Amino acid sequence: MESSFLRNNLNPALRPNQGYLVVPIIPNIGANIQTNNLNLDALTFNGPQNGRVTFMHQSINADDFLSNLGNDNYINIDANIKLLGLGFFKNDSYWNIDLGIRTHLDANIPKSFFALFKKGFDQNQQTKYDLSDLSSTGYSFVELGVSNSRIFLDNTLTLGARAKLLGGLADYNLHAKSLNIDAGPEYWSAKSEVELKGSAPGVIPTYDEKGNLDGFDFGNFNISGYGLGLDLGAVFDTKKIFPEIGGLKLSLALNDIGFISWSRNNSINLRSPKTEVIIVPSDYTIYKDNGTSLSEVLEDTFDDLKEAVNLKGEGENARTSMLRMNMNIGAEYEIMEDKISLGALYSARFGNYYTTSELTISANAHFTSWLYTSLSYSFIHSKFDTFGLALHLAPSKGINLFLASDYTIPHVSSEFIPTTSKALNLQFGISIPLGDKKK
To answer: What three-state secondary structure class fits 309?
Structure first.
């Protein structure tokens, strides 16, 4: 939508048609969640008394539940708050300065992890679970960005770039390269190779009296690391070079190219080396009179199993983490000049362990000087259950209001819960327009 300054976040070469101001009193807020399989329809079911129950309920058949999942099941969550923003035109250049906080979390959970919780272990035969590739990562940072875009080749090509100074708040990366559990009447065993790297203000791992990791302590708030980021973008208008095509514009952007270096005093690097622990049940004895109780035996057994995945520190080490780079490829075709256009956007987010993508098509309408609308559909995560809608009230003076979602929810359960949705998002913002609107 040409009226929205948020399009500059998708591609620093995409300019709004008017300058803007965002003040901290009314910040802009965006949130997004996506998954391939872990929606509420897969994790909850209609229970025996017409209420929804989780997959752990005894009335839910394990095989029915597990058939809803893939071998790898991911979920990712993004949130951003724009605390301050300023955009303005100077001759052919568009400048943008903004300050905000961004948070990202993602996880990949293998099917065997859910099978372990639902099925447990068989008392009559050995049961094996391979939890390898269980992983999760996340970060939170403050971002100060300055972007500029300029027009070249007689208004045909627009190039843009954004340089970003990053202040790291927290970061972690947990990855089970191998994690196997084998239990039954003959023996129990666990072997693993797990790594946890993380950073946060004054973070220190804590251990119990048996030397097993049991938590973390944190120090006073501080900026735990600093980094740099870069967004690059281009928009190509084909109208003058290929007039027979008409109003076709193509765009490409690479965002979040960068890193954060975390300080030594705010970082941990823990790992469990390739370890295997084998427990023979006959080695544990229960005494009835003032001796070892069943609960104590189970506690001792669990402590022994924890040795296989016990994360030990390698001392304080400075570390560097990369941002999750993303790519946006877009196309827009004007059907009626300055009134109606059709668009398509392909986006890909490159993660540590998997890449998520989305393909969205849209119809955009602008029939008055102050109202812009867009209706869209996203193919990969919508699954014909959702559509997108954006609304921008943009008078040239006063207050502008922006509200959008790529996954508006037409279907909910009887409890008004969006059980079938595999993606949800919302973008909300209020801004003050500056200067005159550009054609």
So the answer is: helix
Q: What are phi and psi of 134, to 5 degrees?
A: -65, 120
- Nearest residue to 403 via CA among 418, 424, 389: 389
- CB neighbour class for 415 (10 Å; exposed up to 12, middle 13-18, buried from 19): exposed
DSSP 213-272: EEEEE--S----EEEEEEEEEEEEE-TTT-TTT-EEEEEEEEEEEEEEEEPGGGEEEEEE
Residues in CB range of 422: below 8 A, 6 or more apart = 34, 35, 36, 37, 39, 381, 382, 383, 385
**In Å, how far are 199, 214, 216 from 312, measured between CA atoms?**
16, 11, 12
Of 111, 149, 143, 156, residue with least CA distance to 130: 111
Q: For residue 26, which phi and psi values (nearest 5 degrees)?
A: -125, 80
Nearest to residue 225, comparing CAs of 141, 165, 168, 140?
Answer: 168
For residues 361 and 375, the answer to whether their CB atoms sit within 8 Å is no
Rg (CA), the chain: 26
DSSP symbol at 62: H
* pLDDT tens, per residue, the chain with 439 residues: 889 999 999 999 999 999 999 998 888 999 999 998 888 888 888 877 777 788 888 888 889 999 989 999 999 999 999 999 999 999 889 999 999 999 999 999 999 988 888 887 777 788 888 888 889 999 999 999 999 999 998 889 999 999 999 999 999 999 988 888 887 777 777 788 888 999 999 998 888 777 778 888 998 999 999 999 999 999 999 988 888 777 899 999 999 999 999 999 999 998 887 777 776 655 555 444 555 455 565 566 556 656 667 778 765 678 999 999 999 999 999 998 888 999 999 999 988 777 889 999 999 998 888 999 999 999 888 877 789 999 999 998 999 999 999 988 766 666 667 777 888 899 999 999 998 888 6
d(CA 411, CA 327): 30
Indicate the pTM of the whole model: 0.87
